[in-house]
Amino acid sequence: MIPDIRSEDWSTIFHFSGSVFCFLGATLLIPVVIALFAAEWHSAVNFFFTTSLLLSLGCFFYVRFQPKRDANWLHGMCISAFSWIISMFILALPYYLSHHFLSYTDACFDVMSGMTTTGLIMIQDIDHLPISLNIWRHILTFIGGQGIIIIAVAFIPSVGLNYKAMVGEGKEERLLPNVKQTGRFIWIISLLYLAVGTLILFIIGLTIGFTPGWSLFHAVSMFMSTWSTGGFAPQSLNAIYYHNLLYEIAMTVFSIVGSMNFGLHYYVWFKKRRALLDDIETKSLLVSVTVLFLVMATFLMRQGIYPNLIAIFRKIVFNLISGHTTTGTQTIYSVQFINLWSPMVLSGVIVAMAIGGSSASTAGGFKGIRMGILFHSIVQDIKQYFMPSSSVNVSFFQHLGKQILTDKVIKSTMTVILFYLFFYITGAIMGVAYGYPVSQAVFDSVSAGSNTGLSAGLVSVSMPYPMKVFYILSMFLGRVEFFSGLVFITFLIRYVLQLAKR
Amino acid sequence: MKHLIILSGLLLMIATTSHPVFADSEPSIQSTKKPLLISELLKNHHDWDQRFIQLTGEVIGQPIYADGRVCIHLLDQEGNAIGVWMDKILLTEIHSFGKYRIRGDIVSVVGIFYELCSFHSGDTDLHIDQLTVMQPGKAIPADEPNWNLLLIGSLLMVYPALLFIQTQNEKRKQRSLRFRGTRS
User: Fold this and answer.
1) Of A435, A450, A464, B134, which one has the fewest beta carbons inside 10 Å?
2) SS3 sequence of A119-134
3) What residues have CB less than 8 Å from A275, skipping those under 6 apart?
4) CA proximity to A360, closest of A351, A370, A350
5) What is the per-residue pLDDT for B135?
6) pLDDT at B20 over 60
7) Identity of the residue in B45, B66, B160 whose CB atom sits nearest the CB atom of A56
8) Which residues from chain A sit within 8 angstroms of residue B42, using beta carbons?
9) d(CA A161, CA A155)
10) How far is Cα B114 from Cα B91, in angstroms, rounded to an integer?
11) Of B66, B140, B146, the CB nearest to A243
């Protein structure tokens, strides 16, 4: 029996969500300043209006609704879901007002795609986009990658949001004893990498003939896109635009680093370097990338379409890593996934996307740790048959220290994997029902649910409206790993039933 | 790790013993000239592979230099773009590259389309030797700002601004009270 929803539950959710809105409103001042510098008056006004709306709504919620008691797990989950959903609707305003979207739903789709670091797009005419809007798309991905709750926890002094809200956003690692310190650490890591990564891409940009301003714009955008495993790009050609091996290598490295657990970054930086190689997620990534690469290379060589081994290696490595880290930048055209690559090669990318990156990182998918746990549990079960019936078989795995593989861990792992599979399959069935080819429907559905952003051409403005809504939901639930979204939906249903009873 | 190495070996064996490994290194080029849309080209990329084509589009972004040649990008009205490799000398023909508030030169190019180019690591591109500017680029008038939104935004900003001032005043009062407390 679920207990009754009380007004103080709503107050707690509104109060903490208010601080998240305030923070998002403050970050929107960045595109306002950029727009003013670039004399993009139309964009400046649109961003200023959205900033004002978010700040006033955030302040109102924060002041008017006081939390009556400490936030519990229910509140943590609902704060996360509520903030994400309302933020999507408000942040879609400057997108829609820019006239680069055909409908408000498309604008919401792009905002959710950015916040969840998916990278699927509905935007029109990217190549003529105002710089402020173009950079904001990438900043939003960057913020979404680290987590909007974490950012609020880290930088707003008076926010009493706690660990439960962070878990609601899919960030489960406690790196430091204090939640605020954890949030700050995540942001310090990200900003340090931002500085180094931007510098590297900036220099490469100069070597291929970009002007300094253009190179900096692309460097900032592409670093934020790849580090946060987002997949957006400042040009419609995405990563195809650069035609440069060094740019591709840099983007691939940033994607891998970004898709690693923040906890692992902390361990490697401050505790022991060896943790990187011992960790179950690193091993899982290494094994799956190697196996998938070999399968894809084998079948692409059998197809005999690429001119040489270097071309095969370059195309597979970039697109496979992009899919596996759920980044979504691509060096082949969307239509070519279906028209050029055989179903077996395509399956390699689909499996990579479905698995995704590491837990508590910027990446999506059902995560390497769950693949590792699944593998360990199968091995443990098989081993059990060879042991005497009286023996107790205990299995361990390395993840930020030695962990015991318990039934509870296996059960929760299986539950999350099943949720992901359910959304992947439902999206695919929906696509097929609307008349899309099976391979295309499966590819794009997995891409949305795992927050990857690679597309085989299904996602476009002409996509049926129910599919757009489903994909938005799929991106959101995939990002928060289902529970906070499902808890919030249950919370709403319970509240409506309660009202109806009265 | 051992298992991975064995698996790699097995798969590579399958790959090398199977029939086709790479595409023909010396393609036969058919001289077929037909004006095309980029979207049409990308949709039926296999049909146009290694054939002479004529393409029209807007030049966007900035040129990229590599191996003594230059790559520009053409965009069609449907939002599809493609990389076009050419001699540096042809770049002097282009005066305007499309970006925000600027419509780039609309050019017509003639060259060979490569579905998977052997010179550029399997990229889909076009190698041209003829470029004609059909329509010079121009400035696009910027959208007028919506002044009503500015007004509403300013009004909305009053509330957080007042709250901020109030919080600062309270903090100052508390600080002065604490200061008095320590003095007494």
Assistant:
1) A435
2) CCCCCCCHHHCCHHHH
3) A264, A267, A268, A398, A400
4) A370
5) 95
6) no
7) B160
8) 333, 335
9) 11
10) 21
11) B66
Chain A (63-92) residues lying within 8 Å, Cβ to Cβ, of chain B: 63
Using CB atoms, which residue from B22, B79, B145 is nearest to A308?
B22
User: A127 and B142 in contact by Cβ < 8 A?
Assistant: no
Contact flag A60-B159 (C-beta cutoff 8 Å): yes
Query: Which residues from chain A sit within 8 angstroms of residue B38, using beta carbons?
Result: none
- Residues A450, B31: Cα–Cα separation, whole Å: 45
Q: Chain A window 411-430: which residues touch B at a Cβ cutoff of 8 Å?
A: none
Helices (H) and strands (E) in chain A, counts: 22, 2
Write out the two tokens for A189.
């890591």
Which A residues 258-317 touch B at CB under 8 Å?
287, 290-291, 294-295, 297-298, 301-312, 314-315
ipTM of the complex: 0.87
Contact between chains at B15 and A301 (C-beta distance less than 8 A):
yes
* SS3 assignment for chain B: CHHHHHHHHHHHHHHHHCCCCCCCCCCCCECCCCEECHHHHHHCCCCCCCEEEEEEEEEEEEEEEECCEEEEEEECCCCCEEEEEEEHHHHHHCCCCEECCEECCEEEEEEEEECCCCCCCCCCEEEEEEEEEEECCEECCCCCCCHHHHHHHHHHHHHHHHHHHHHHHHHHHHHHHHHHHHHC
Partner-chain contact A56 B23, CB within 8 Å: no
B-chain residues near A63 (CB < 8 A): 163
Judge contact between A67 and A470, C-beta under 8 A. Answer: no
Question: What span, in angstroms and rounded, lies between the C-alpha atoms of A123 and A138?
Answer: 13
Closest Cα in chain B, distance from residue A135 (Å) = 13
Whole-angstrom distance, CA of residue A496 vs CA of residue A500: 6
Residue with tokens 């399968």: A295
| Torsion angle in degrees (nearest 10) through CA of A484, A117, A458, A464 | 50
Backbone angles phi, psi at B55, to 5 degrees: -135, 145
| pLDDT one-digit tens code per residue, B89-113 | 999 999 999 999 999 999 999 999 9
Give residues 209 to 248 of A whose Cβ lies within 8 Å of B.
Answer: 209-211, 214, 235-237, 240-245
User: CA-CA distance, A499 to B148, in Å (whole number)?
Assistant: 38
Matching residue, tokens 């008095």: B180
* Cα gap B23→B144, rounded to integer Å: 53
pLDDT of residue B132: 94
Q: Are A487 and A5 in contact (CB under 8 A)?
A: no
Read off the pLDDT of residues A182-220 as tens digits, 9 standing for 90 and up. 778 888 888 999 999 999 999 999 999 999 999 999 999
pLDDT of residue A484: 84
The pair phi, psi for residue B57, each rounded to 5°, is -175, 170
**Residue of A67, A50, A53, A59 whose CA lies nearest to A20:** A59
Exposure of A485 in the CB half-sphere (CA atoms within 13 A): 16
- Give contacts of A301 with chain B, Cβ < 8 Å: 15-16, 18, 20-22
Q: How many residues does chain A have?
A: 502
Question: What is the pTM (predicted TM-score) of this model?
Answer: 0.91
Judged by CB atoms within 8 Å, which residues 17-56 of A form the interface with B? Answer: 22, 25, 40-42, 44-46, 48-49, 51-53, 55-56
User: What is the C-alpha separation between B132 and B117, in angstroms, rounded?
Assistant: 23
